[in-house]
Amino acid sequence: MEAETFEQNLLEMRSPMRAFAYSLTRDRDDALDLVQETYYKALVNMDKFAEGTNLKAWLMTIMKNIFINNYRRNARRNTIVDTSDNNFLIDSLALSIPNTAETAFIQNDLTEAVRHLDDAYKKPFIMHYRGFKYEEIAAAMKLPLGTVKSRIFFARKQMIEFLDKKGFERN
Predict the structure, then answer these.
(1) Where are the alpha helices (DSSP H) in 13-54?
(2) 160-169, pLDDT tens digit by residue?
(3) Are 10 and 42 in contact (CB under 8 A)?
């Protein structure tokens, strides 16, 4: 493919490239930097692009790889390694005893709220809490998917009302 045609095709991919970059970074400036770096890599490696290959997929793959490499680089950069012999502060956390009283109170209130749920809402809510997907709950209970979703929604609503009456503070 000629350089001019290749560059023109790159420019046509500007909008989907920005959207994909933003979905990866969730930051406008970082997304624009990622698009720019992707274009640079694409232009440098233009000779590796095979005619007939999906240009958009090729560019998205380059972008994804750049994003992953940058993420790994930043993760390594933010890792703190302590090689000193003064490990007593680091190890002191193992000696501390966590205060579980507040957690126990919260757990008791939540358990009581679940116990006060209507029976129609309790089972789908508990199954969802245990990690079942909506579709799995619907199949197990032989209910339509929408019914399962609404029952879980109303279970949450009932629990919030119950906890509000008890004076439970939400963040």
Answers:
(1) 14-25, 28-44
(2) 888 888 777 6
(3) yes
Residue burial 23-34, b: 16+ Cβ < 10 Å; e: rest = ebbeeeeebeeb
Give SS3 for 25.
helix
Task: Using alpha carbons, select from 157, 87, 164, 151 the residue that is nearest to residue 125.
Answer: 151
Rounded to whole angstroms, how far apart are CA atoms 165 and 171? 16
The one-letter amino acid code at 3 reads A
In sequence order, the 6+-apart residues with CB closer than 8 A to the CB of 75 are none
- Residue pair 163/112 in contact (Cβ under 8 Å)? The answer is no
What local confidence, expressed as pLDDT, does residue 148 receive? Answer: 94
